[in-house]
Specification:
The structure is a homodimer. Chain A is of the alpha+beta class. Chain A has helices spanning about 15-25, 70-90, 110-125, 180-190, 205-215, 225-230, 245-255, 270-275, 320-325; strands at about 35, 45, 50-60, 95-105, 130-140, 145-150, 170-175, 190, 195, 235-240, 255-260, 280-285, 295-300, 310, 315.
Chain lengths: ~325, ~325
Amino acid sequence: MPSRPEADDPLLGDLSEGQILRAILSRTAPATHTILGPGDDAAVIAAPSGSVVATTDTLVHGPDFRLAWTSGYDLGWKAAAVNLADIAAMGARPTALLVALAIPRDLRLSFVERLADGFREACAALAPGCSVVGGDLTVSDVLTVAVTALGDLEDRRAVTRSGARPGDSIAVAGEMGLAAHGLAVLFGRFREDDRPVPVDVSKLAAGESAAVAAQLRPSPPIGLGPMAAVAGATAMMDISDGLALDAGRMADASDVTFALDGSALGNNPERALAGGEDHALLATFPDGVLAPGFRIIGRVQERGEAGVLRDGRVVDVAGWDPYRDWDSAVG
Amino acid sequence: MPSRPEADDPLLGDLSEGQILRAILSRTAPATHTILGPGDDAAVIAAPSGSVVATTDTLVHGPDFRLAWTSGYDLGWKAAAVNLADIAAMGARPTALLVALAIPRDLRLSFVERLADGFREACAALAPGCSVVGGDLTVSDVLTVAVTALGDLEDRRAVTRSGARPGDSIAVAGEMGLAAHGLAVLFGRFREDDRPVPVDVSKLAAGESAAVAAQLRPSPPIGLGPMAAVAGATAMMDISDGLALDAGRMADASDVTFALDGSALGNNPERALAGGEDHALLATFPDGVLAPGFRIIGRVQERGEAGVLRDGRVVDVAGWDPYRDWDSAVG
């Protein structure tokens, strides 16, 4: 996309809140489930099964993304995708997003327009029928995108983390470790003096390009969440912090042990275990049952000392914690 | 509330995300409408009428509040109240809040605990049955509280801004201008060298004390929103940016003119017209109909040149715009 001349692309500080909101809303038309879209005090969204699934997740400039690496479009896409994955992980179908933006005044209108494009296109690609139904805009020195996603269970029960039973198979749909590979490429190759610099795609090998794309614009298999629920998944969650940590959470919630098969974790099992941000779906199924798009990576056992085993050995990998691991001075 | 010794009150930077979340969630127990509360990928909330009303509103340190004036408790209360008001303004009953916190590491645990207390007690006082069902926590240099509120229409139609008809009476429930008075007291009396300093309540006259409380812990009449809908309100919204601006928005949406009676606007009509943040409910009712708690302040006319008249004269008051009116250098 060619960049627009600055004369046609005002700074947000030179516009009113209303002008900025109109630019966003003209790009995010309400979809299937919207009964009343943006413009009033609140939106109204269909909840045909008599309940609504709701989750919220925030991306903050610094710990969660860098503008040197992430475009407005990528940011909108990722903020949508990570929230859609949490809805899918309950076995629900996403119906609506609410987007709260806190944006510095020195960004340009085109950034916000592309952000809206990213939200719209992520919904269209990952969760057709879902759309941005409302939002809020305020000024802040730190660019912050807080998204709430809503979903409908279509008369199914929610698939929680606590239903895994000994004998169930453990299965995954989606990438594991690819987004972490992408982050390693960004940190390793696109920084100068410890500061992020724009990505030069001509310097990327094909595999690196896919990894960077997975980090910046993840594509979790949203539609497979409801299919897993229909197939009879006993537990499900999305892998946001790496398989080891998230499988451990599910094992603890279900009071079982997850015995993983290292040979089923791809070319780089370490990265699959440690690497977050792919938002793959981790689910357990009764023996002999498997939903489309899922692959078996292990089996649930009676609870032992450890929550997660790999080929019989204890796995202990700490995930990423923003309070412990993010240092704004280092970046 | 006596402040806790620092030894018992760790900095957030010395805790993990999980520890902080547990401290919050232990103080915000799920209520009536919660089918599945915090702890999984998403919450599940009852939506008995087959739709859900949803809104989001964010408070950012600087433009929206100052920690010198606002305690954690006040911040939680206000973040809840402003979102509950948007649900009530649709004629819906609030069922759930999702709270996305972006918090600097140099705040203490007690701040977050009191924030959670404020959310809980605002729900209990203003919208019984509603509670915090989920949230997200991340680190940021700018304290940011993004809240999404959900509500149920109880089989009624949503009351939008666009339904006011000529001949309807215009009515208000709640305070108008009190929160703005409070803000004026804070800016006028509790700053030194252009920076906010803590409020010394002993320096406040009784009226000032109520005004400051209305600014820091607004109490919109949430329960009256559903009652207005039941009574037959033709249009409704909450007054967040002052009566003049918000009545103008409703008049524009309904393509009518709002003729306000200056004598019905209280002791300080200018402040009622210009002052925001009370989150009073503005509604129109068919002639002869009025919901409990509402007082008539004017009558809807066929659309004329202006959207809002006061005693026959055009009212033109600009509201507050964070992009135009907030300057972090001035504060």
